[in-house]
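Fold this sequence, please.
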Amino acid sequence: MARLQRAERDLPPIPPKHYFTIGEVSQLCDIKPHVLRYWEQEFLQLRQVKRRGNRRYYQPREVELIRHIRSLLYERGFTITGARHELSHLRKDDRQSVSRIPEEQTALSEEMNTSLTLVRDLPAEPSLCDSSSTRTSLMGETVRAELKEILLLLSR
C-alpha cells in the first residue's frame, strides 16, 4: 500500500498545455494506453477530443480526472462500478455548488445596488467654498463609477 501512495506522489506535474496525446497522458498518469481506452468506455465523464485520423487528445481537466480515477481504483481499492458511483456523487456536489453561485451573485448584486443608491444620494454639486465637500463629491463620483462597473460585471 505504501508503494502505491508513493507512486501517486511520484507522478509528474501536468504541463501547461491545452491538449495531450494518449501517450503523454499515459506517462503523466502512469497508465497504459489500452487502460485509458477501456476507461473511456467505462467512465462517461472522460470526453477526449478526436481529431485527424481518429487520434485522441485530452485536455488538462481530463488528465486530472484520469488521475482521480486512477487513485480511486489503484490506491483506494474501488471497483469500476464503485468509482463510477463515486464520480457521479462528485459531479452532483459540483453542480450543487455551482447552482449556489447565482444565489450568491444575486445577494451581492442587491448589496451593490444598495451601495450605489447610497452613493447616488451624495451631493452631486458641492459648494465652491467648501473644499471637504468637493473632496467628498469627487470620492463619491469615483466610488459610484466603480460600483457601476462592478454591477455591470455581475449582471453578465
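The CA atoms of residues 39 and 46 lie 8 Å apart. Residues 1-6, 95-101 have pLDDT under 50 and may be disordered.
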